Amino acid sequence: MMRPGRGIGRAAPRRGGDVLDMRTACERCSAELPRDSTEAYICSYECTFCARCTTELTRTCPNCGGILQLRPSRVGPA
Ligand SMILES: [Zn+2]
Ligand SMILES: [Zn+2]
Fold this sequence. Notes:
By secondary structure, this protein is largely without helices or strands. The protein has a domain of 52 residues. The protein is 8% helix and 10% strand. A 3-stranded antiparallel sheet has the order 2-1-3. Strand 1 and strand 2 form a beta hairpin. The chain is elongated, with a radius of gyration of 19 Å. The site of one zinc ion has 8 residues, from strand 2 and helix 1.
């Protein structure tokens, strides 16, 4: 009843898009903003800025004009 192997060993290239690309540096000053940072701010398009730049930018994204909000840190079990 088993069909002969078909396509085994041929890894299908992954079409990007399923992995969320979390930026880990401020787009303005390149300050490091690791995943668990509590000082990372993002807009709805995920432009990422550090707390200091966010304050200097009055919480407005210079790229898209969106409001910068504190990025939820991803800590805990994966
Ligand atoms: Zn910055
Ligand atoms: Zn933006």
